[in-house]
Write a structure and sequence with these properties.
This protein is mainly beta. Helices cover 15% and strands 61% of the residues.
């Protein structure tokens, strides 16, 4: 009897958990993404948010500009901006993007004046 009651309880709880999980049928996926590092040398950083496939929007983009953080609400995609940086400056981009049956790339590319130490970092929101 005890084993039957335990089996029933586990089955009931499993059914409740499974029924609470629903697939997002509209095909959208919301992604808060962020990347940051320090500039290894003087150079340039290009911040970018691009739609690689399907549809998607950037609800918010915040990046480290030359005079501090810059925040953009609902910018058009693709988004690219180039910033001068000094050694040890913060390189940072944070976004809230929504992919709709698509793929959005968020990232930065650092290059020093000689192109010797390129650094690229990218994250994806994909559905």
């Amino acid at each position: 009897m005890k084993r039957t009651l335990t089996y029933f309880a586990v089955t009931f709880l499993s059914a409740m958990i499974i029924s609470a999980c629903k697939k997002d049928d509209d095909g959208t996926y919301n992604c808060p993404l962020s990347l940051s590092t320090k500039a290894p040398a003087d150079g340039l950083v290009v911040y970018s948010v691009t739609l690689e496939s399907g549809a998607g929007v950037a609800n918010l983009i915040t990046y480290q500009g030359t005079s501090g953080k810059v925040t953009l609400n609902n910018p058009d995609l693709p988004f690219h901006v180039t910033i001068d940086v000094k050694a040890d400056d913060i390189i940072s981009i944070a976004t809230n993007v929504t992919a709709m049956h698509g793929k959005i790339a968020v990232g930065y590319a650092f290059s020093d004046p000689g192109g010797v130490n390129p650094e690229v970092n990218t994250q994806y929101c994909e559905n």
